[in-house]
Amino acid sequence: MTTAGPGATEAAGAAPAREFRRALGLFDGTMLVIGSMIGSGIFIVSADIARTVGSGGWLLAVWLVTGLMTVTGALAYGELAGMMPHAGGQYVYLRESYNPLTGFLYGWTFFLVIQTGTIAAVGVAFAKFTAVLIPSLGDSTVLFSAGPVRVTAQRLVAILNVAVLTAVNTQGITGGKWIQNVFTSAKTAALAGLIALGLVAGASLGVFRANLATFWDATTTHASAGGAAAPVPLAGIALLGALGVAMVGSLFSSDAWNNVTFTAGETVNPRRNIPLSLAIGTGAVTVLYLLANVAYLAVLPVAGTPGAADAAGRGIQFAAADRVATAAMSVILGPAAAAVMAVLIMVSTFGCNNGLILSGARVYYAMARDGVFFRSAGKLNAKGVPGAALVVQCVWACLLCLSGTYADLLDYVIFAVLLFYILTVIGIFRLRRTRPGAERPYRAFGYPVLPALYVVAALAIAVDLLVLKPAYTWPGLGIVVLGIPAFFAWKATETPRS
Description:
Blueprint lengths: L25 H12 L8 H8 L2 H28 L6 H8 L2 H34 L8 E5 L2 E4 H18 L2 H30 L4 H6 L6 E2 L11 E2 L2 H18 L16 H30 L11 H4 L9 H10 L2 H34 L17 H17 L2 H7 L1 H21 L14 H20 L1 H12 L1 H11 L5
Antiparallel strand pairs: 1-2, 3-4
């Protein structure tokens, strides 16, 4: 099978061979993991989780289980990263564990929706919080409208966010690396400060003590037409189902940790540094996410009323526009909270999108080298990065920003994303059997028990979504299945580069 390694020699008479430049060390890889994971989700999705499970204990349980799954998955991926330190990461793992079609189906879905849809969504999140500071840049400011096409100031800011970061990353790995390191360090420190502020201020409010009184009282809550909340008690199978649905938000807030595997071609000593980056990065984010939710519980009641006049009355469940972190900080900082949180989330989403843009193009590069993506995407530019792949990714992500459909598409691929994670971890078992003599500088921690538990837990969530959220799961499977004829079409017209 083709290995997506360093760039190959160009045609006769062309410039000398271009190769990836190994410029990412352990710190850079760890910043890429943390920065790609922390976007806007941790500041928002706890509201929906609280409405779904109804109490502080179950809210923390959702984040804890998500964190354990994420770290376990990352530890398992470390073995594959050590075995196959090539550009493309998970695409390469699936291709080598199963067959080229399986790898392509991942790459197809990754390009159409998973990565580009996430880039669009994060770009729009950046734009939304920019509008908090500059209201004229909001979605209500329409710049152009023609039929289904509607260009607003918010969408234009999102497109500029994606385009600027793409342009920086076409100029070499160094610029993208420094943006990642600076913005990830800044937002990690800011999130830690938010946590500390919440815990210190909450110690004197007595809110956490009140939340403890209903800590394990599971309910699901919906707002009625009149604005009143109607909690419904949960127990048994209904509770398990609610927990699975609630984990959708936390899983996506914890996603993208695998992106560091895509950059193996540019990582110094990738067999060591990528597994370590995965372990350190996912562990750090899991701790930060848990502590952030403890801080929310320290200053806001879980339950609330949709139409309440203040943040405390709305609680975590009905924080305005689901902005839980802003609501929590408003209790402490007052009116200044909106601006402070807007700046924090702008920093967070800017760094997050840089990591997504930087790493995602390496998957299309690997696919193009295998003859199943645009040929130009398989070339490195004069700066040693896949410039054409970055541009193609940018164009599609910007179209998704413009269309406004990225959120729906992301909902549709929840099930597919879980399946690809499951298949990748199962690939460890397959490769242990089919390639027992392969070099494994790192072996999956807790093998075979922990990887097997990951597969079981992810399968349980996938089945839960299949039953309770069929409107989202089946379209996602449809997108994956459409990749089958696309694969054979690519193979009929493209040939792998030597």
